[in-house]
């Protein structure tokens, strides 16, 4: 675990240099099927909360530098806090930081990475990429409140910005992709999938989520079943 963290620190140091001293300058095309096109024509000093170009740059640079492990840090000279995690799923054992509970649907050896960039000016953008899954299959995925554990229930409920007083939350007023971080995706022929969530809030310092959970099917939205996505297949610790 110590080596994994160290390599992530080195990668993140390079990221800080890239972002703080020159910026990424990357405006690459998004391949996700559930994200809106970023407005790259915005001026750098825009205060439009919908302007997420700076978050896109952070995510692009971070992805190119990701290493095993997870960590979060504030980037000097910017208002951005960046979180990154990358790991290979293993069958349930001593280390549950990246664990598959259902190797038939999330095979051991599948890899996941999560990058999240958050800024008071632009909200929170989170990107999940997974490889090595079943081809052409829909999966649900969300940010959860607690770290992964040997028990699939260990990761707790979905993280909610506005917390539903009735838990487990199935009220669409709370269990929706604007109040939670949903990362549902459908894999391609090679078993790769990715998704991006953009919400207009930042994660509270005193109530940080801790994991991303992959589920059996895409997330339902109807009253009484909003947020439901079937069994928990796998879990990745993410140090938001
Ligand atoms: Cu979930």
Distance between the amino and carboxyl termini? 17 Å
Which small molecules are bound? copper (II) ion
In CATH, the architecture is Sandwich
If strands are numbered along the chain, what order do they take across the biggest sheet? 3-4-11-10-7-8
Query: Helix content range of the residues, please?
Result: 10-25%
| Uncertain stretches | 1-7, 22-49
- Using the alpha-carbon principal axes, give the shape: globular
Number of strands: 11
CATH fold-level topology? Immunoglobulin-like
Largest sheet, in brief, is: 6 strands, mixed
CATH class, anyone?
Answer: Mainly Beta
Q: Kindly report the average pLDDT value.
A: 84
Content of β-strand? 25-35%
Q: How many domain modules?
A: 1
- Secondary-structure element series: HHEEEEEEEEEEE
The assigned structural class equals alpha+beta
Outline the fold blueprint.
Elements lengths: L1 H19 L32 H13 L3 E6 L6 E8 L1 E2 L6 E3 L10 E9 L3 E9 L6 E7 L40 E2 L6 E7 L11 E5 L16 E6 L3
Helix pairs in contact: 1-2
Task: Describe it.
There is one protein chain. The chain has 240 residues and is α+β, with helices and mostly antiparallel strands. Helix content is 13%, strand content 27%. The strands form two sheets. Strands 3-4-11-10-7-8 form a six-stranded mixed β-sheet, with no helix packed on it. A five-stranded antiparallel β-sheet has the order 1-2-5-6-9. Strand 5 and strand 6 form a beta hairpin. The longest helix has 19 residues. It is globular and about 45 Å long. The two termini are 17 Å apart. The N terminus is likely disordered. The structure holds copper (II) ion.
